[in-house]
Amino acid sequence: MTKFNELIQGEKPVLVDFYADWCGPCQAMAPVLKQVAQKANGQFKVIKVDIDKNPQAAAKYGIKGVPTFILFKNGQSVWRHSGMIGEAQLNQVISQY
């Protein structure tokens, strides 16, 4: 959990994908997240958190369903979305921060 806290503390926004291997929509989002991360050019980070392997993180952020995306900036949650979301929408949200 300490490493996670360190990752979300930076000036750059960090998009966290809370997912599970058994989740179909999570698997469908994987290529979208890969595209978003490739276009990031170091402007922000994308990290994936498996809720089954990291139940403390899932509990701390109240993850009830997957996929859930939380955008952090300076350690604070600035945006949250549960369910599938398009690449254009994700890029638009991230660009605001």
Overview of the molecule:
It is globular, with a radius of gyration of 12 Å. With 97 residues, it is of the alpha+beta class. It has a four-stranded mixed sheet. It contains four helices and four strands; from the N terminus they run H-E-H-E-H-E-E-H. The chain has a single domain (8-65, 85-95), classed as Glutaredoxin (3-Layer(aba) Sandwich), CATH 3.40.30. The two termini are 24 Å apart.
Quick synopsis:
The chain is α+β, with helices and mostly antiparallel strands and 97 residues long.
Whole-number count of domains: 1
Structural class, judged by helices and strands?
Answer: alpha+beta
CATH level-four homologous superfamily name: Glutaredoxin
Beta percentage is: 25-35%
What radius of gyration results from the CA coordinates? 12 Å
Number of DSSP strand runs: 4
Intertermini distance: 24 Å
Helix-strand topology string = HEHEHEEH
Could you give the order of strands across the largest sheet? Answer: 2-1-3-4
- Number of continuous helical runs: 4
Helix content estimate:
25-40%
Low-confidence stretches: none
